[in-house]
Write a structure and sequence with these properties.
Elements lengths: L3 E5 L3 H22 L2 E3 L2 E2 L23 H14 L7 H23 L7 H18 L5 E5 L1
Antiparallel strand pairs: 1-4, 2-3
Helix pairs in contact: 1-2, 1-4, 2-3, 3-4
Length: about 140
């Protein structure tokens, strides 16, 4: 009796691409948190309320900052490398994209704020994380036993 089962094989190029893209994406998220997001204020000092309010203030507590959330997403993406499916890396990237777009909207709504480098680093890092989560998948292979 011949048994068939399907497996997915990932080549070394796919794994290398996922690791490289995840590392670059996580670096963008983490480094971006320490750069200026708006009004020469680092992401680690911009309140997380910047996601839903255009009158957001500053904070000295990194856990309550948008930069802290960006760092957390970068670390989550790196942790996602432990799983071959890439779902955690994609999730971290998708949440990062949604968060940065919401911050961009609030900054653009506020007349005295402007977009700065750190925000763009975080957005680019998020996009790279989504791309990383989509790479490395092999074609299904049927194995006869």
């Amino acid at each position: 009796m011949v048994m068939h089962h399907t497996t997915s094989r990932v080549g070394p190029t796919g794994v290398t691409s996922r690791i490289l893209l995840t590392a670059l994406g996580a670096a963008g998220l983490i480094v971006g948190a320490f750069l200026d997001w708006t009004r020469n204020v680092e992401g680690t000092h911009v309140s997380w309320r910047a996601v839903y309010q255009d009158s957001f203030g500053g904070t000295d507590n990194i856990a309550q900052s948008i930069g802290g959330a960006s760092i957390l997403l970068g670390l989550l993406a790196v942790l996602g490398l432990a799983d071959m499916s890439g779902w955690l890396v994609r999730l971290a990237g998708a949440v990062g994209i949604v968060g940065t777009v919401l911050v961009i909207i609030q900054i653009q709504r506020s007349p005295d704020h402007g977009l700065q480098t750190g925000l763009w680093f975080a957005l680019a890092g998020s996009v790279l994380c989504v791309a990383a989560g989509l790479t490395g998948f092999g074609r299904p292979v049927v194995i006869d036993e």
